[in-house]
Amino acid sequence: MTQQKLLLLSTGGTIASVISEEGLAPGESGEDLLKMVGNLPYQIDVKDILNLDSSNIQPEEWKTIAEDIYKYRHDYDGIVVSHGTDTMAYTASMMTFMLQNIDVPVVFTGSQVPINVLLSDAPDNMRLAFAAAASLQPGIYLAFDSKVMRGCRAVKVRTTAFNAFESVNFPPVAEVTSDGLEIKIPEQWQPRQCILNTAIDTNVSLIKLFPGFDPALLHAMAENGCHGIVIEAYGLGGMTFIRRNVAAAIGELIRKGIPVIAASQCLYERSDLTKYEVGRQALLEGAISARDMTSESAITKLMWGLGQGMDVKDIDKFFNTNVAGEVTIDELN
Ligand SMILES: NC(=O)C[C@H](N)C(=O)O
């Protein structure tokens, strides 16, 4: 049997970090990573495309990563992207929108401990990512600590523990068991034209509501060039309306053409603005529900939608559309 051909795109992160006087910083190449993982039953090519801690990965780097995935995808059976963990969920979510209908498996991974440390989690995570890239349906995934999840559902929930990521509001698609990589949710992939579209609007904001939040800050953002806002509201999507009327401020912004997405500060389960008065007020003012999306998916979806020139109505429609498994659409808001 011929070996599967896989590509490693390395971008830095803790996985590739070495100790320096300034603190841990990326230093190992993709080839170094592969050497330390040891033998794998695949033919693997490597390209070092970035060498950054992921806290330095920003929209400019998203574009580079998306373009490289797009450029090389047909030369390989699957692609692994090694990436720092801090912003990996944002990058994986953005790739979901920039590379719609991706036609190969693309698997992001990283580690909590550098690969050159004896008991690092990196070798296991790399092996998992390659196994996933060799066997899953096309899609954007994140592989970490024996689990493979949809990239657009992954959230970093722990700062140091090996089980740093969780798949939020959607089960992991595959898990390591004694039988190997067990596919739990076979993705229903249908061949369609893969589109690379990296146009995004980065003039957006993601804010968390807290008791005492001054809605004038929303106006200040709009006056300073903010084109769209995701608000992590309370519980099912509730927002203050007495004394400090957040809902009314949202209405004013929306009438100025600035979409406002209502997400929840609860990590799990969906927002539903219809249930309480504090949600309905915001809904009446035109707030758009993020439903069960992660904040990482909501903010990247908003950037991408605005980058396509969508207005408030289009963004509303876009957020009521499931692009690649990032949201569960049901009758609820
Ligand atoms: N574990 C990690 O990879 C954290 C690191 N600061 C990064 O995101 O690049």
In short:
It is built from nine helices and 18 strands. With 333 residues, it is α/β, with parallel strands linked by helices.
The CATH topology of the largest domain corresponds to: Rossmann fold
**Rg, Å, rounded:** 20 Å
Give the biggest sheet: 8 strands, mixed
CATH architecture of the largest domain: 3-Layer(aba) Sandwich
Q: How many beta-strand segments?
A: 18
Structural class comes to: alpha/beta
The domain tally reads: 2
How much of the sequence is in beta strands? 15-25%
* Main CATH class of the largest domain: Alpha Beta
The helix content is: 25-40%
Order of helices and strands: EEEHEHEHEEHEEEEEEEEHEHEHEHH
Helix segment tally: 9
Q: Low-confidence segments, ≥5 residues, pLDDT <50?
A: none
Q: Kindly report the average pLDDT value.
A: 96
By CATH, the superfamily of the largest domain comes out as: L-asparaginase, N-terminal domain
User: What spatial form do the alpha-carbon principal axes imply?
Assistant: elongated
The side-by-side strand order for the widest beta sheet comes to: 4-1-5-7-8-9-12-13
Bound compounds, please? asparagine
End-to-end Cα distance: 50 Å
Structure description:
The mean pLDDT is 96. The protein is an alpha/beta fold. It has 9 helices and 18 strands. α5 (216-223) links the parallel β15 and β16. It has helices spanning 30-37, 59-72, 88-98, 122-135, 216-223, 246-255, 277-284, 295-307, 312-319; strands at residues 5-12, 17-18, 25-26, 43-52, 78-82, 99-100, 105-109, 139-144, 147-150, 154-156, 165-167, 174-177, 180-183, 195-196, 204-208, 228-233, 260-264, 288-289. It folds into 2 domains: 5-196, L-asparaginase, N-terminal domain (Rossmann fold), CATH 3.40.50.1170; 204-319, Rossmann fold. The structure holds asparagine (ASN). Residues 13-14, 53-55, 84-86, 110, 112 line the site of asparagine. InterPro entries: AsnA_fam, Asp/glu_Ase-like_sf, Asparaginase/glutaminase-like, Asparaginase/glutaminase_AS1, Asparaginase/glutaminase_AS2, Asparaginase_C, L-asparaginase_C, L-asparaginase_I. Keywords: Hydrolase.
